[in-house]
Amino acid sequence: MTDSRETQCRETADADALHDQFNDVWGNPRGWRALTIVNHTTLGLRFMVTGLGFFLFGILLAMLIRTQLALPGNAFMGPEVFNQVFTMHGTVMMFLFAVPMMEGLAVYLIPKMLGARDLVFPRLSALGYWCYLFGGLIICSSLLFGVAPNAGWFMYTPLSSAAHSPGINADFWLLGITFVEISAVSAGVELVVSILRTRAEGMALNRMPIYAWYILTMAMMIVIGFPPLILGSILLELERAAGLPFFEVTRGGDPLLWQHLFWLFGHPEVYIIFLPAAGIVSTLLPVFCGRPLVGYRAVVLGVLSTGFISFGLWVHHMFTVGIPQLAQAFFSAASMLVAIPTAIQVFSWIATLWLGKPRYNVPMLWLVGFLIIFVCGGLTGVMLALVPFDWQVHDTQFVVAHFHYVLIGGMLFPLIAGLYYWLPHFSGRMASERLGKWGFWLVFIGFNMTFLIMHWTGLLGMPRRVYTYDSGLGWDMPNLISSIGSFIMVIGIATLLLDLILHYRYGKPAGNNPWQADTLEWATSLPPNPYNFVSLAKITDRHPLWRDPELGESMARGEHALTVIDHGRRETWGVDPLTGEVREIIHLPGNSWLPFIAACFIAVLCLSLLAKSYLLALFACGASIVVLLRWSWENGAHPKAAPDARTQPHEPPLHSRTCDGPGLWGMGVTLLSNGALYLSLLFGWFYLWTVAPNWQVPDAPVFNHWLLFASALLLSLAIPWQRRVNGRLRQGNAQGLLACQVSLALIGLVQAALLLWALRSEALEPTVRAHDAVIFVMLAYSFGHALLAGTLSALQALRVRIGYVGAEAPYEPLVVAQFWYYSLGVLWVSYFAIALFPPAFGGA
């Protein structure tokens, strides 16, 4: 007995010593140095706490709106203030709360669920958070100064154009939202690559937690769906600040182009918000029903189908703008088609409830409330997909009620269920059942009082976006009921916040895996350590903690893989995307000031553009690029990235010593997003040529298109050499690598010079007609890419010279090569669209 006790004490001491070693490498600093933290646990919590702050601000704005509309002829707010409050409410809830909150929860959970120690690009996550925080503060500060956006959260042109919104109100929205979108796309790239490349050993795609499938789909939709709005914001800001007429009819533009770009983003965003919430439902229901999710494969197929179909629905929001009847019929059918994969998920949830033994804890109440409200919102969505009905209720309170049922019912209810479920993970304590149930019933009753009645108000003809109304129209009582219901809902939210605050002090401690869940996030300590797991287990089942309830304890004792830490690296497995077979060790960067500094310079860029201080903006842009390039320098074989490149005899190599590191995947996904932005620009070019009523084509070419041809041809001749050199590099031969990178850097400089020459053509008049304005943006796009590609190759040449890149560390030139291939493709497509497309210059 004594020997057994001594052995147990010795094992405990060894495990504690191992955890101390891991904390030395992975630990988070305090004080001012907390700004350098890049760990996903801390960043995920920061995203969620910041999102909660913006949510409360949005709730305050909503209460101001409902107070104004509670009584007819109310003078609580004037029309200008109301327009600002209305615009900011929609902007805050859609851009600063819904998407960032879901991304923050995913940033926190995904590595833990996948059995990894962190996300694959920790500094990118940090940059994304700071961009989100600074961009949100810039947007919200406009309301305090009385210059908030006032053209609606959708910013339709021409209302948001300079002629009708001459102040800087719209500029706050355009620049601030673009700033925030950098954060969203950064997180999207991060999550896609992390899910595909950093899972536990043996976790094949068919063994991934269902939540990871939802987040993978959401992240891919962000990567593809957000660039059209980014492009639209850039084009509208260029029109407002520099006079380039993309949306002005008299000079060849078309205001409907803005609606197309906005809803190319806007309708997928509905599913970007809904899918992670549905992922929470699919994760929690099996836990509280005590059985696996019914139809796992069917649900995965439904999720992927929803993401795909959602990109074909954007005209669903434009049935009344005068589009052809054939297009109306197509998009009406597509709008109803998307209900099928959604129904697959709903039936799976109902079957899981039917076959299980539900426990109605607080999270489960929110899930049941979600099912009721979301199904109602889905039914009204099918109604709005019918063109004749949509014509009748378009721009009425009926539409407002519908999308609140879909977004609050489809997002907020599952989110609160998830927060209650994972609250022990954040704090190590359990929340109050009594306060939680009071909060649920107050929110549920108040929500339905507010928005169920609003359907009636809309059917009675009350328009959206009106700041007051006359008595005697039949709208008095419905509006009063809706306003009372909104205040009941706010009391419920206040109850939930009280429960959240009190539980940190008075909540009873949560034991290990308090809900008896099946997924790996409950195998960590509560709250988790910065490194999540001291050893990484092999996974052979979709429900690892149901298969082995002691798995968390054995991982904490260091009984599994990758437990060596004396080299000072932060490490996690890099796996095959399909099979989960381990391929390399991914070494991750540590805490750094660079993301924070880069975000600060981008914030200065945003503010200087608002102030029209273009010299300062140019400095801030240059400074942010320098910081980002400095960031890229500490990578791969750099001593700070991998102070000791040796691995254990039985372990695979470090990712920087292979030809398929995560940077290759990160560049590919980033270029996918970049390509979505470019295709949106190309769509704008062909759309304006086809539809714009005053499209003006000059009699002669507006620039020497042979310069564009020469630029594309020059790069086409260089790419085969680059491919041969990179092919040898993959085989361990770095011969000619330095000469190739130096040559590419010079080619990038020559390309940039040729494109700048074309941009400065006297015949190109981008402020006179939209035709020239689009060409100007296309040329500027390629100019920026040529300059950046050349700079990246120059840095690679320097790294080859120093010894950071070579036969032993080969993968960085392969990453840069993807950027060159993309630039080449863009050049040829632009040349075809501008120079060889005959109707562009009045040809047959």
From TrEMBL:
The keyword Ion transport does not apply. The chain crosses the membrane at residues 43-65, 85-110, 130-152, 172-193, 213-236, 270-289, 296-317, 329-352, 364-387, 399-423, 435-460, 480-502, 593-610, 616-633, 664-688, 703-722, 734-759, 774-798, 819-841. It catalyses: 4 Fe(II)-[cytochrome c] + O2 + 8 H(+)(in) = 4 Fe(III)-[cytochrome c] + 2 H2O + 4 H(+)(out). SUPFAM superfamilies: Cytochrome c oxidase subunit I-like, Cytochrome c oxidase subunit III-like. It is an enzyme of class 7 (translocase). InterPro entries: Cyt_c_oxase-like_su1_dom (IPR023616), Cyt_c_oxase-like_su1_sf (IPR036927), Cyt_C_Oxase_1 (IPR000883), Cyt_c_Oxase_su1_BS (IPR023615), Cyt_c_oxidase-like_su3 (IPR000298), Cyt_c_oxidase_su1_bac (IPR014241), Cyt_c_oxidase_su3-like_sf (IPR035973). Its main location: membrane. It is found in: Cell membrane. It is a multi-pass membrane protein. Residues 32-540 form the Cytochrome oxidase subunit I profile domain. GO terms for biological process: electron transport coupled proton transport; oxidative phosphorylation; respiratory electron transport chain. One of its GO terms (molecular function) is cytochrome-c oxidase activity. The keyword ATP-binding does not apply. Pathway: Energy metabolism; oxidative phosphorylation. Residues 582-840 form the Heme-copper oxidase subunit III family profile domain. One of its GO terms (cellular component) is plasma membrane. Keywords: Cell membrane, Copper, Electron transport, Heme, Iron, Membrane, Metal-binding, Respiratory chain, Translocase, Transmembrane, Transmembrane helix, Transport. Its EC number is 7.1.1.9. Belongs to the heme-copper respiratory oxidase family. This is cytochrome-c oxidase.
